[in-house]
Amino acid sequence: MKEMSFCPVGERQLATYLENRLAPRERDAFAAHAATCEICRGEIDLWERLAALPAPAPSADFERRFEQMLRLDSGSRSPSVWQRPAVAWAAAAAFAIGGFFAGNYVGHQGPKSELDELRGEMRGMKTMVAMSLLQQQSAVERLRGVNYSVRLDNPEDEVVTALIQTLRGDSSVDVRLAAADA
Question: Is pLDDT at 82 greater than 50 in this prediction?
Answer without folding.
Answer: no
